[in-house]
Write a structure and sequence with these properties.
The protein is an alpha+beta fold. 49% of the residues lie in helices and 15% in strands.
Amino acid sequence: MKRQIYTAEHEAFRETVRVFLAKEVLPHYERWERDGVVSRAVWRAAGKQGLLGLAVPEEYGGGGTPDFRYSAVLVEEFTRAGASGLAIELHNDIIGPYLTGLATEEQKRRWLPGFCDGSIITAIAMTEPGAGSDLQGIRTRAEDKGDHWLLNGSKTFISNGILADLVIVVAKTTPEGGAHGLSLLVVERGAEGFERGRNLDKIGQKAQDTAELFFHDVRVPKDNLLGDLHGAFGHLMTNLAQERLNIAVAGIAAAEHLLEITTEYVKEREAFGRPLARLQHIRFEVAEMATECAVTRAFLDRCIADHADGGLDAVHASMAKWWATELQKRVADRCLQLHGGYGYMTEHRVARAFTDGRIQTIYGGTTEIMKEIIGRSLLG
């Protein structure tokens, strides 16, 4: 089905992204996978190409393009290329809104130009060893010391954790209040007492640095409070719909690409003297996946269009995230099976997609959390 949500300008941007991937990312990607981290140079190259800060106003060095469809194009092309290591979507679409929407004028002028040119790489530190989706379990705390905050605690599973120059830390700023006693504090590279732990060894997305972070009596200037004091819960909830849609966009793009790869493979691969595609079971498998992808794509494109117009709510974002990522997981498993032994070899795209994509149903809110959000909206 012909997609209706993109204009000629969006497709021209898609071509720009493809050229960037071919020139600046794919030639180096195997090395980054071995190293467990991408180069800082590729972030600067992305900034030079105008791929960072798409929605940031031009006066701060950004693209001045709040239209989410450009971000969706970026996610789709990076997903098709299998380039999860360069976490531009995290930088642009998850962390960017906190800086553009909550930062003071002084903070914007201090941080956004580097955010857009690639000299400042960002991360958000929410998850802790004992607290994931449940924000009330956060134990990292910041004490008000008059002219600064004194930050203590630890975070884990932090994407961009090794490279990050600027980390938005979710911390308790009052002993009471549970989830409503949290604030967002910005910790910058070089702060005394801020230490990075291991670059965590994951089963997939090897080139994407994911780290433990430790804060030992870190003095955070009062000027680095982001948004309202004790207002982190509301700020986090406001931006979750875009985060989940972003993940969902990657989910359907991955499923569609895996289906394309597998369709070509079964046409060429022979068994019992004829192509696999001639076997009824194989045709049925491909037909089922193609139909599931087409139906999901229609819903996701509607969500993208709604979000671009400012109309996507948390419930439909949760539906999109749950459905698209679970579909991605199913399609990856079935496509690997149809590749047989070759599908288990890491040099094959389907094998890497199988491991890279497994996190999709976990981060940004697990499938179970998505169902809870949807269920509560219907049943109270």
